[in-house]
Amino acid sequence: MRLALPASLGEMQMAEIATRLPLRTDRKDEVFARDDLPVGDFAFNATVANVFDDMVSRSVPYYEEMQRMVCELAADFAQPQTNLYDIGCSTATTLLALDDAINPDVHFIGIDNAPDMLEKAAQKIRAANTNRPIELKVVDLNCGFQMENASVATMLLTLQFVRPLHRERVMKAIHAGLNDRGCLLLVEKLTSEDTTFNRLFIEHYYDFKRRNGYSEIEISKKREALENVLIPYRLDENVQLLKEAGFRTVEVFFRWYNFCGIVAVK
Questions:
Q1: Which end of the chain has the lower number of beta carbons within 10 A, N or C?
Q2: Residues 83-125: pLDDT tens digits?
Q3: In whole angstroms, what is the distance from residue 217 CA to residue 39 CA?
Q4: Secondary structure element (H or E) that encloses residue 138, with its range
Q5: HEC states along 95-111?
């Protein structure tokens, strides 16, 4: 299903960070700030979509630097007359950052399973006034999907939300849709086999969130909301998944405690 871009831009304040990273941070994330509200499973609904850029910028360590590195590596592999897929494109932050870095003859396709996130993505694309057509599609990775003629696929903090039962099939679909020497740029939250390091990394991650203004209630309630929704793999499990899908070269390009960026080449 292709999502039509809205005709009108509406009022939008855009924050320019680092390499023109288009984050809309004028609306503060307070989704889990109230202690009196029940906690359900985390969902990328309209409430989250409205504050997602602030949420991700305060919740993901080195988010801007990670995006910059993804843009650099994507530019190394992108080829004219091919497609670039952003799988789990959320509010199109990565697509718009890539727009300045990638040859204009590369066609951009953003896919996400959350219509509310894609509506925000469409608004940001309109506001950016880019000359490159960017196609947005509603796709549930758990139900299968296809790519074609791709030189680059990006997948930032998305695979962790795909049910483990379907991850092997998703990786094989990405591998099949990439051209020879095409690459997948994968960013994931990790768990560790060693329980001590797993505990320490999580504690340091929560310290990072505290430094960015999140309260103990917000940290606790979001952890509960994500418990059955975000299922991280260990680094070696992700590497094995990529190699078993057929990727010839797999290399880590970013690591911060329990966050990791991996580049995999077909």
A1: N
A2: 999 999 999 999 999 998 999 999 999 999 999 999 999 999 9
A3: 11
A4: strand 134-138
A5: HHHHHCCCCCCCEEEEE
